[in-house]
Amino acid sequence: MQNRLIGSALIIAGTSLGAGMIAMPLATAVIGFWPALVLMVFNWALATYSGLLVAEVCRACPGTTSLYGAAGQLLGRPGQFIASLATLFLPYALCAAYITGAAGHLNGSLAHWFSIALPQGFSAICVTALFAGVIVISTSSVDLVTRGLFMLKVMMLVMLIGLLLPKVEPAYLNTMPVSEGVMWAALPLFFTSFGFQATVPSIVRYLDDKPAQIRPAVIIGSTLPLIIYLLWVIGTNGVLPQGSLVAIQNGQDPVSALVIGLTQFGGSVWISTAINLFAILALATSFLGVALGLFDYLSEVFRRAGSFSGRLQTALITFIPPLLVALYFPDSFITVLGFAAIALVVLAIGLPTCMALTLRKVSKEGASPIMDQPILQILAATAGLMIILIQLAIAAKILPAIG
């Protein structure tokens, strides 16, 4: 069971450490390092609490493997309908972003280093087929693969940070925001970068509904990204000037552009190897975690069997829609992350808060310490509403967009 706790924490951490690893330094270049640090801590606290709340709600609804099922038990059809929309939109959008980012990185790297030009669609199909195969096998395979990839990713991060930190220019970290209001505009993107909550129902089932294992897995899994984001942002934003990062953010294929930019700055084969592997592994672990949660949700909704044929059918439903989005909108990497925050707020904060309120009304006895905190739930709901309003203001061009 201890191995499962470690594996679950790494699945949660790996789910967050994907597109956020690329988006963080680009967004930080626009808002400045110190405001970004405040946003990191704020979103870590909000994400950790919401993850624990999701876990407790799922534990209170035995027999369910997703928030869709829990919402049906506690909130009826209206709650289940809202849950279905959010649960579909969020992971589908994120998977599309990961496919787009991974395919763009693959194409950019091959073109830059080997002068090989692959069709964007072909790369997207290859990336999707590879990760779909891992998930079709079993959840345990995702655990084992993620555990190995995460350890390798940490090794690459340690190597990369060790190479970049001695070259950090403090002046780069003290740059001012490029425009007023841009810090608020970054809030939805930062919250999405800590978006692991859709994976929590699968973790609850995987850890046999044992809170002594679930709670540490959520806390450890959410804290690891905070530490890694901080080191990563210092290493990247401390060696590349603000103007270069902003140009990368506004260009095509920001994933490959950031990798190539850091490689050219370092001028070292070690930096080149580390940054390329790190970008690949960051996207891979995040893709696996998000896709696993979506896979389990669709399996429950469509009542697919656990056999190979049943899992294959679920995989087709899981991966074809985001693949189509990646094929038809290949430049949607950064933009979709901000809009995904709206669905994430509904899924990770709004619904769990409503379900916790329902559970307290039904029975106050035996309520968990996490659910029996109305003040914290009100604060979380207020923060979630603020994130939604900010993203809507960005869409209405009241606030400047990040990317």
TrEMBL record:
The chain crosses the membrane at residues 28-46, 81-101, 113-137, 144-165, 185-204, 216-235, 274-298, 310-329, 335-357, 378-399. Gene3D superfamilies: Amino acid/polyamine transporter I. Keywords: Amino-acid transport, Cell inner membrane, Cell membrane, Membrane, Transmembrane, Transmembrane helix, Transport. Pfam families: Trp_Tyr_perm. Coiled coil: none annotated. Its main location: membrane. The keyword Zinc-finger does not apply. InterPro entries: Amino_acid_transport_2 (IPR018227), Trp_tyr_transpt (IPR013059). It is a multi-pass membrane protein. It is found in: Cell inner membrane. This is Aromatic amino acid transporter. It comes from Kistimonas scapharcae. The lineage of its organism: Bacteria, Pseudomonadati, Pseudomonadota, Gammaproteobacteria, Oceanospirillales.
